[in-house]
Design brief:
single chain, alpha/beta, Rossmann fold, Arc Repressor Mutant, subunit A, 2 domains, five-stranded parallel sheet, two-stranded antiparallel ribbon, 8 helices, about 45% helix, about 15% strand, CheY-like_superfamily
Length: about 180
């Protein structure tokens, strides 16, 4: 039996993220690496895609507009038990990392990350730890990213963000008015 001409040639990858620019950039980068990429922007669409394409690999954001990305992780693993799923998040903490692994993820990466780190996590085998990044973010950049994330979570409300970060509102305003530190 012959395969159709348009059959996927590379491993299947499902990318689920509600951040459209990130989803598009990641899909393009992974297609260049030979993956057959399907994208979804919500839990519902991710679960539907997982059931229909049964991907070998998946990358899923933890917090999606319509729910928790761990539901997608479980759907991917149910559709294909040998699937390797990496969870991305801007809200990293130990509890969510443990929950992601219990749901079936093989790794848990904090945003921002790049396609190289994601591919390394997807293809890592055994108990071998991934290599540390060549040029990790500076401490100032990590702090700035965290503040920006909390600011967005608080719907860009400076007073609420300052309260949650336990910092003075004017100090926060000065930080928000500066450009991001260089890595």
């Amino acid at each position: 039996m012959t395969e159709p001409i348009d059959a996927p040639t590379g491993p299947t990858l499902l990318v689920v993220d509600d951040d459209a620019p990130l989803r598009t950039r990641l899909a393009t980068a992974m297609e260049r690496r030979g993956y057959q990429v399907t994208t979804a922007e919500s839990v519902a669409a991710g679960i539907a895609a997982a059931r229909s394409i049964r991907p070998l690999y998946a990358v899923c954001d933890l917090k999606l507009g319509d729910g928790n990305g761990l539901e997608v992780v479980q759907a991917v693993r149910a559709a294909r038990p040998d699937a390797r799923v990496v969870v991305l998040t801007g809200y990293g903490n130990i509890a969510t990392a443990v929950a992601a692994v219990k749901a079936g993820a093989v790794d848990y990466l904090a945003k921002p990350t790049d396609a190289d780190a994601i591919e390394s996590a997807l293809k890592a085998q055994g108990d071998k730890l991934p290599q540390p990044p060549e040029q990790p973010m500076s401490a100032d950049r990590v702090r700035w990213e965290h503040i920006q994330r909390v600011f967005e979570q608080c719907d860009r409300n400076v007073s609420e963000t300052a309260r949650r970060l336990r910092m003075h509102r004017r100090t926060l305003q000065r930080i928000l008015n500066k450009h991001a530190p260089r890595d």
